[in-house]
Amino acid sequence: MKEYIKGANPYMPLWEHVPDGEPRVFEYGGEKRVYVYGSHDTMRTEYCGKDYVVWSASVDDLTDWSYHGTCYETSDGSVLYAPDVVQKGDMFYLYSAEQKGSCVYVSESESPTGPFINPRKTDLGFDPGILVDDDGRVYAYWGFCACYCCELNEDMATIREGTLHTHPMEHTIALWLKEDDGHTGAEDAFFEASSPRKVFGKYVYIYSKRYFTPVPELGVYTENNGFLSYKYSDSPLEGFQPGGDISFNGGEILKNPDGTGTMSYRWGNNHGSIMEINGKWYVFYHRQTGTDEYSRQAMLEPVDVAMDQNGKIYIGDITYADGEPVSSKPVEMTSQGAHINGLDAYRLISAGYACHLTDRRQQKEGSAAAKAYIRPVYEQEDTVSAPIVEITDGVTAGYRYLQFGANAPKTVTAFILAKADLTVNVRMDDYRGKICAVLHMKAGESQTTAEMITGVIGKHAVYFEFLSESEGVIAEFDRFTFD
Questions:
Q1: Contact by Cβ (8 Å): 447, 414
Q2: Most buried residue, 97, 207, 284, 388, by most Cβ within 10 Å?
Q3: Which residue pairs from 159-164 have beta carbons closer than 8 angstroms and sit at least 24 positions apart in sequence?
């Protein structure tokens, strides 16, 4: 029996929903591992949950993640928002955002997996991000639609006198802000999700940007906070210079003839950070499943990080000229994640790994996102698959990228619950690309196989285009494989 792909994007099992992931590399017990700390979407009808869990992977294999269980539970029964964890000396410190982020506590553990105990209230606020500097000094960053930063005292909880900086960058305009405080700006547009990192000796402030002005080339025409962005400085608390956007969870940006872009996935809020792992950099972020923002999943992508001769930091998909970085843009959102050579096309691949979900009939300015969606699953089984549901005529589900190896497959098999007679075109490289197989199904069928009509080897994006003459929902897409 074929095995399911694991550790793709999302990289945790499809039943797990951990957004806001802060990645940290810790050496513990003689082993270096990447630990991810985030919120836990268990409430299902609202953001987050009442516990934090820990997942980790060896720095040598980011496709094999281990579950370490609950590391912290809410102390007062309230909902926990995004946390952070740092190490100082031999102790690990968890910053928990209780009461939906309005009350931040710090607790401690001798292990990166917890349990974290002895919670103490801090002076910090919403979405705390912590940086332990090379000299042992500790800095904290936080905020929602306005940001703050400071140095912490030795207690890891209180603000060192005279170090509080308000508005180290300008923040976004949002409908719920009653008045302009004089610190708003479209370039920075700080929203939330403070995450400090040290890169090439510079202090990098990563955050969630909420665009409130159009960015047509990225498919942004209305307010949008699906971006992770950054600024950088020579100082930990001030002097932050313009950076750019690192990632976006709105999927592949389809290029229109006039140079504008169109999003290809249902975007939503974003939160995460970057981490250097075995000499390579990755951005950790989250995407949405379902029809809301309450079942978010952990994602990662390789990312370029560079500094030019003038000390400017570039993070994202970087363009170089004569060996020097000159510009950057958000890295692409993929299905492969840490499988950098592509997902094994000959294993079972859940439809839930789609990174492109569009509807040509719904395409309008800025978005072709489909009403079809990936249905969240919660059964904690290795073989659980997250299906794409509410598929109608014209929907396309895309996967970037699959690896076919040196020998072309002869067939493709798809597990699709057909609710009407339908045709599925399997396209390569582009959602309008060459058709390499055609699947035909009758209403009531649940599995079909078709012969490949063109040879495919190596690494390719694959798209499934659903067509039918029937109105309404025509299919549910569960999984697929090649042979």
A1: yes
A2: 207
A3: 159/123, 163/237
